[in-house]
What does this fold into?
Amino acid sequence: MPRRQKQLTMASSSSVILLTVLLALASWQATAYDPSPLQDFCIADMKSPVRVNGFACKDPMTATPDDFFNPAMLDQARDTKASKVRSNVTNINVINFPGLNTLGISLARIDYGPLGVNTPHIHPRATELLTVLEGTLYLGFVTSNPNRLFSKIVKKGDVFVFPKAMIHFQMNLAHDKPAAALSSLSSQNPGVISIANAVFGSKPPISDDVLATAFQVEKNLIDWLQSQFWENNNY
It folds into this structure.
């Protein structure tokens, strides 16, 4: 084989190998969270001592229709008056609905009192699709650096998507009436990190020197913020 042709053949082989590796990595990333199940269903066995990434399956032969049912009463409004942020999130995920195990989906109803806020937070494992059930909301999400804000005012029947792991929020714009929304999430257990709670209410607390430098404020302000009760509105 001529030398030039041999070099081209080797280069072509290297390109094929590189492309194969990149495709494999892309495929792994695509299935890294809540991969497609390998069986019809896998009802979580919450009492199993086995520890896996998710929950162990109970014997499918013992499954009943009730394993695929949850009397969530999501048609009923929740109380928001007891919340300092005037909102209440009712989560339906694998923790309280074992039939969702391995199915890659969960649900939440969000109730907002007048001027109620679902404070800035992230779902580290899920994209969220929010449908407004009642009222008018101001909502949005912030991208990774350089932190661009995408926000919009939405009304009953509107749908808005929050990409996975983006900081996002909602606020009821009405001063005198409640609002409600229903969210679908692309994970059986999407998780939630409330930004203010995590920064100022972690246990043990983050050093006030670190936070004072990060926020460019005096340490006594950080100490005051850390002394507050940081409420979790996700029930």
Q: What stands out?
A: Residues 121 and 195 are 5 Å apart (CA to CA). The first strand starts at residue 87 and ends at 92. DSSP finds four helices and ten strands in the chain.
